[in-house]
Amino acid sequence: MKRTVVLMASPRLQSNTDLLANKVMEGIRATGSPDDVIEKVDLVELQDYVCCACGRCRAAGECLQFPQVTEKLEMIKKADGIVIATPVWWLAPSSYLKIFMDHWGAFLRPDYTSRIAGKRAVIVACCGNPTENLAEKVCDDLVKILSFLGIKTVGSLSVKGVADYAAIAGDTQSLDSAFQLGEALYTR
Questions:
Q1: 104-114: pLDDT as tens digits
Q2: Which domain holds residue 65?
């Protein structure tokens, strides 16, 4: 049995980011077994829990300020794989993802070694810019962060030119690529 956590970082359901995340999930299901578990976390729900940089999380292995955050961190600790899905906001992942990632100090021991090394991940990001793929930079940055935690990024998908709500629905190539990323999460 494989357990996957999907971090959905868009505030809009059925947005371009959400549609890509759903396609990745379909790909995971297509290659998995019936007892696999896929849990989708809506990071908008955590927007009020901003890290206060107390630093106690590294020793504790959890956020001591917000049990709601610790619950989501525990989901990642128990997972075999992670899917990160984010829109691009000002050359970076959405604030919802960043707020959650600021709590990832709990994944580090006091000596800065990772508590979650060995997991696998895929990343999808999209931006509205029709000429420059700003999502590519976001994916590259997230790969570096995951690598620091000892997580292998199996692949990423960066899509440009999807400014309109649900515009990705007409982009069969990107949707197919997202599905293939899901298939690859545990097979590549």
A1: 999 999 999 99
A2: 3-185
